What we know:
homodimer, 71% helix, DNA-binding
Amino acid sequence: MSTRDRLVETTRELLWERGYVGTSPRAIQQRSGAGQGSMYHHFAGKGELARAAIERGAAELRAAAEAQLSGAGTASERITGYLRRERDVLRGCPMGRLTQDPEVVASAELGAPVRETFAWLRERLAALIAEGVAGGEFAAGLDPDATAAAVVATVQGGYVLARAAGDPAPFGQAIDGILGLLERKDAR
Amino acid sequence: MSTRDRLVETTRELLWERGYVGTSPRAIQQRSGAGQGSMYHHFAGKGELARAAIERGAAELRAAAEAQLSGAGTASERITGYLRRERDVLRGCPMGRLTQDPEVVASAELGAPVRETFAWLRERLAALIAEGVAGGEFAAGLDPDATAAAVVATVQGGYVLARAAGDPAPFGQAIDGILGLLERKDAR
DNA sequence: GTCTATACGCGGATAGAC
DNA sequence: GTCTATCCGCGTATAGAC
């Protein structure tokens, strides 16, 4: 891996763990093994590095979700697969985390990948839910957009509950809860 | 309001906006109008101040939730009232926000109020959901604990979606979604 | 491309006067 | 109780040598 790549990967880790305000160029240098001059040779500064790191993270997250959501199976099975896929729950979501950073949301450059990722995910799930409703897998009266928002929110909030508890269990409970509600397919 | 109180209130605001790492003693002093010496006279340091601020915030959040959840009406009405109560959505949840701060979750002193608040809220909602299931308001097969976790997670995740979008609407959608799922009362 | 040197203000706190 | 002075290392960079 090139020095440049190591810088980006290290920045991703640090942003995930400590957020944008909590991540210093010094820490990036030390953890990545790159020197001061090296870092400023490859990137104009902390902002540029964060931009690269966030964009890479967003692309990977979307690719991973798309792989699950466009796989084989019914709409319900694919959603369940997505929700139950293995996660490093106590680390939280690398995109959702950035949402708490005032400097990230205030910045067009840094915030755009986060905004787009969640917009895409909600749309993708809404389409899948609409498919499930059409196929009779879900209740006929279900609003796909609202339900998709609730599903994505449950995942994001599940991370919050798990971190608050210092225990991954509440995440699993929240997923069980939303799936339990989704699966009662009886019409209204 | 005493200087001490102003320091605590200012710290609450700053923790809410910027988190623990992003909040400096200097910023607290400037925004509260208290001097350096004054701050260190009342509190041993940033940690003590944050502890007081977090504890006060946790107590108020619980009181506000309890007021909604123990009000008049059926279980379903009280839960709906809680979910639909007015919120400053784009500011996020002052407790949920702290969950992203590594220094907060790593500290017993700072993390305990957060942990206890969410544990209490999940239990409180689970009891109310169990009541609703017993009274036939909700589907008979519903798991109260899992459903409560999903409901709390939807709120917390709703904040994340709203902040990601820079728009309060996704929060409302997520709430609509979870309520839509909860309200289909047909047995499994 | 990478290194070392240098800069300057902030973060977090202590000391002691008033 | 509050103020000013002082401390020391970190955050965030720039300059210039190799």
